[in-house]
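Q: What residues go here?
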């Protein structure tokens, strides 16, 4: 029976190294080869078949390095990157990882270990003090890819490109012409538009920027936009006098969504982008920059219902400031209170008649819920007051090792469930 246990997403692994984690010369030790010293009586081949081997090994590594991953190291199968803010912290983390591996009877191949590297290749990315960039060897495979003449070859190309979509602005819109060829009941007809899309993807990945790490001491900036084919967003920081991109997001529109008016497409871009970056934005104030009056129009309703009410409810979970990028169609305050699409739009006209409009939209905008970020001390204090979490946390604070089942067995079912995580 095949085990199903998804590995952590690449973006989440890299984003966990936020702040100044890579801002020192002595960067990390990179362990690329690791094997287990099996004792007699143990299975040497993978029990249950080879297809279970990666999941089983990943589960082993996550268990061995539990509590250290994301803070002291990154682990993916037999690749371990050990990090640190300072040289002393790095050596301390290195010592902790070695002790864990030794305790688990895992051995390292010295020839495959590299220490104090300024940058390393990790699961198709190159990470350094500057940020994250694409691996040139993997991108070379994209650049050298011949023009596909079969759907299978085209899908293989798109899979490789999609892995790096976070580096490409408006990836979905750019890839849409050739992606259509992979849809069901679609004839494989390679047009000039497909050729342009194919070459544009190659060029975009070749010129992909270095993405900076998310920093908790900097405010996030979210830019959103929408077109007839897709929606897109850019999450960034202001670092010094420069605005640095953290990650790009894009999504193709489905058939019903492509029938939306301009207003609803722009609103969809805002809602989907904020939801996509939830782990960055929730509980933090951020700047939302839009080039449309759609959001202010949305927040202008007195008693919204249906889709509009659901969108407002989602957005009210976040604390953001709206900054409108002036355009030729709406450059003053009066224009911001009107819907941005044409007067002939039936959906928007019916919504205005049904739900009514506020006279002062600033009241609605300022009532978005504010969630103050908690400090680690406040979170720990709250957890110690929780009867289900307290038994585990107290034992964890007194020992670096995970509490054993014998210690947790007398506790409540809820505590046992937390322990199983």
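A:
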């Amino acid at each position: 029976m095949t085990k199903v246990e998804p590995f952590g997403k690449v973006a989440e692994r890299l984003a966990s190294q936020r702040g100044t984690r890579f801002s020192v010369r002595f960067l990390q030790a990179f362990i690329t080869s690791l094997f287990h010293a099996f004792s007699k009586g143990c299975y040497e081949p993978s029990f249950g078949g080879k297809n279970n081997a990666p999941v089983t090994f990943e589960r082993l590594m996550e268990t061995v390095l539990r509590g250290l991953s994301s803070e002291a190291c990154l682990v993916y199968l037999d690749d371990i990157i050990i990090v640190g803010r300072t040289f002393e912290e790095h050596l301390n983390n290195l010592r902790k990882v070695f002790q864990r591996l030794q305790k688990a009877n895992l051995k390292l191949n010295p020839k495959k270990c590299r220490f104090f590297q300024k940058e390393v290749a990790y699961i198709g990315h190159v990470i350094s003090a500057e940020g994250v960039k694409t691996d040139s060897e993997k991108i070379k495979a994209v650049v050298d890819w011949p023009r596909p003449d079969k759907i299978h070859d085209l899908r293989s190309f798109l899979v490789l490109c999609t892995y790096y979509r976070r580096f490409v602005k408006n990836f979905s819109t750019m890839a849409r012409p050739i992606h259509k060829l992979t849809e069901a009941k679609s004839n494989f007809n390679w047009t000039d538009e497909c050729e342009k899309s194919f070459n544009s993807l190659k060029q975009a990945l070749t010129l992909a920027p270095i993405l900076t790490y998310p920093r908790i001491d900097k405010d996030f900036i979210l830019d959103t936009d929408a077109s007839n084919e897709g929606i897109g967003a850019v999450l960034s920081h202001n670092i010094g006098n420069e605005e640095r991109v953290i990650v790009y997001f894009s999504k193709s529109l489905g058939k019903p969504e492509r029938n939306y008016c301009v207003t609803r497409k722009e609103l969809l871009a805002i809602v989907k982008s904020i939801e996509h970056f939830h782990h960055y934005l929730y509980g933090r104030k951020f700047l939302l920059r839009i080039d449309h009056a759609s959001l202010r129009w949305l927040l202008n309703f007195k008693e919204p219902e249906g889709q509009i009410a659901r969108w407002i409810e989602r957005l009210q979970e976040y604390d953001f400031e709206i900054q409108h990028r002036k355009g030729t169609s709406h450059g003053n305050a009066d224009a911001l209170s009107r819907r941005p699409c044409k007067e002939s739009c039936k959906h928007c006209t019916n919504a205005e008649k049904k739900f009514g409009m506020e006279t002062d939209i600033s009241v609605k905008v300022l009532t978005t819920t504010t969630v103050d970020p908690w400090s680690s001390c406040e979170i720990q204090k709250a957890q110690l007051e929780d009867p289900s979490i307290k038994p585990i946390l107290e034992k964890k604070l007194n020992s670096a090792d995970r509490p054993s089942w014998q210690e947790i067995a007398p506790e409540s079912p809820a505590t046992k469930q937390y322990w199983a995580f």
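A: Context that may help when evaluating the design: The first strand starts at residue 28 and ends at 31. The chain has four domains: 7-40+51-129, 134-207, 211-340, 376-419.
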